Amino acid sequence: SCPVCRNYTRAYIRHLFNVGEVLALRLASYHNLFYLNHLTKEARKAIAENNFSSFYSLTKEALKG
């Protein structure tokens, strides 16, 4: 769903970071903004459905990795 993830491999982005290419920073920023926007939408949805506690717990566990 993320445009960066759909169009670029992680290996390519890593390569861009390794060679100091500015595009790596731009792609990482786009990816992070997409992720935060998606997370915010999901949080708002959970609040509207009075289900934020469950959303918080599941998200916290997922982010622990």
Automatic annotation (TrEMBL):
Residues 1-57 form the tRNA-guanine(15) transglycosylase-like domain. GO terms for cellular component: cytosol. It comes from the Bacteria. The keyword tRNA processing applies. SUPFAM superfamilies: tRNA-guanine transglycosylase (SSF51713). Gene3D superfamilies: Queuine tRNA-ribosyltransferase-like. One of its GO terms (biological process) is tRNA queuosine(34) biosynthetic process. Keywords: tRNA processing. InterPro entries: ArchSynthase1/Queuine_TRR, TGT-like_sf, tRNA_ribo_trans-like. This is tRNA guanosine(34) transglycosylase Tgt. It comes from bacterium (Candidatus Ratteibacteria) CG15_BIG_FIL_POST_REV_8_21_14_020_41_12.
